Write the structure tokens for this entry.
Amino acid sequence: NDELVKMSQNPKDWVMPTGDYANSRYSKLNQINAQNVGKLQVAWTFSTGVLRGHEGGPLIIGNMMYVHTPFPNKVYAIDLSNENKIVWKYEPKQDPNVIPVMCCDTVNRGLAFGDGKIFLHQADTTLVALDVKTGQVAWTVKNGDPSKGETGTSAPMVVKDKVLIGISGGEFGVQAHMSAYDIKTGKLAWRGYSEGPDNQLLVDDKTTALGKPIGKDSSLKTWQGDQWKIGGGATWGWISYDPELNLVYYGSGNPSTWNPKQRPGDNKWSMTIWARNPDTGVAKWVYQMTPHDEWDYDGVNEMILSDQSINGQPRKLLTHFDRNGLAYTMDRTNGELLVAEKYDPKVNWTSGVDMDKNSPTYGRPKVLDAASTDKAGEDVNVKGICPAALGTKDEQPAAYSPDTQLFYVPTNHVCMDYEPFKVSYTAGQPYVGATLSMYPPAGETHMGNFIAWDGKTGKIVWSNKEQFSVWSGALATAGGVVFYGTLEGYLKAVDAKSGKELYKFKTPSGIIGNVTTYENGGKQYVAVLSGVGGWAGIGLAAGLTDPTAGLGAVGGYAALSNYTALGGTLTVFALPN
Ligand SMILES: O=C(O)c1cc(C(=O)O)c2c(n1)C(=O)C(=O)c1cc(C(=O)O)[nH]c1-2
């Protein structure tokens, strides 16, 4: 979308939830910099009126800001040039029966803009187009069926004349897909499934994996019988787009159920990076990171597109920090695997990826027996697996600065016990099949790190400990400052080169939102949603206390209630006049 390419180059605006198509979450604004960020003050705040987890962040277009909330998915249009007056608001009517089929809190990761409309992906999977000026509904379309466990939490992405949207339901045995709707009418243009026959995958004889054609029935061959029909591979993460290559990138999640014994095979193409043509949906290349998942290491985390040189050669790169604890650097033109390294030294389920191009297991991770929940079998509790199911990183997006050529990554430093059990499929009922508990790595007490990562070499450059997982998205800026939020509720600013903490402020609730920056009236602002929740904060958000509830997160993050409580607030910061 040419309009969006242009608008995303204007650093005064924040026109898509990812900042730009490359998902770099980098701003050219530099009024706030490493020298003065310590003087930051709260400029204004806005209460959303909604409790539970607030993910994503506002869009800023000219003088207008668009703020979204978790269920019931309110949208506020706020005039920044007129005392932050609410110009319009929208609140969909949704059946609250969708709440119990949302696996990991009633979150929503944000809005999209394009063609004079704001796009909202509701919890009940309705995609709504709202007139940007009035909030009037232009069209709506149903992307899925909550009675089967299909829900909406991810942000749409506008690419050319289409709105792309994924779907959640990996814990309910859905057959997940990426779908593209016509921006003018909401008519379905294409739908590519994560598993199934080739005509449902939208693959052809030119689709490759690691440089080789995937061949016929590449997915069907890796499932027993028709298990692919309830195979999961949800697409609830972020989407990126390279306009020059005309490819969109996203990841698919865990195969259903979490009990690996019940679904022998590689379970393709769950846990996979997809590169698709946005016009037709046809996949150019795929890469499966965790074949036959045994730990719920969803592959949905964002694909960050950068142009850097490796061994003196300029490359078009895609960098992905996977739940499985490995960070992948790939050539985004053809899916060549360049680097795959652990971004937390505690990762212990694998000894690493086979990088020998002549090996029959090229590109596959080597699974260590001690961490294999499949080898252990049903009703055996495998202890001390790192990372935990919520991964070394979950939905919280990293940022990339072209100034330092470093990635800034919010991470989890958590391990787990995992006991698979037999489960039968009933539409709309949880199809999980594992009991979990979570805790920090042995001998340690902190559950998170905020790290700087060199994607060319696959090395940690610096690492800051955090008491809890960093569940907030990062922002890198030309001021040499990187921002992120913490589960206790701090907005933090650190030096991009050294990681030195330069500023912190405790907002009203834990932060799982993504930090955003914009300029208005000649002044740079930094904005973040607080409102604790998400999977890590599910105990607080849903009022759960049994330690194994919330798929094991309730016990793991029990101490969070000593630091924060529920409540959605946007906090906006600026330098004093
Ligand atoms: O497989 C799925 O459909 C699915 C959906 C979601 C979601 O939509 O929020 C999450 C997950 N899985 C998941 O595995 C996960 O760790 C997770 C964390 C969060 C969150 O918002 O904190 N959502 C989800």
In short: The mean pLDDT is 97. DSSP finds five helices and 42 strands in the chain. The helical segments are 2-8, 198-201, 373-376, 538-542, 553-556.
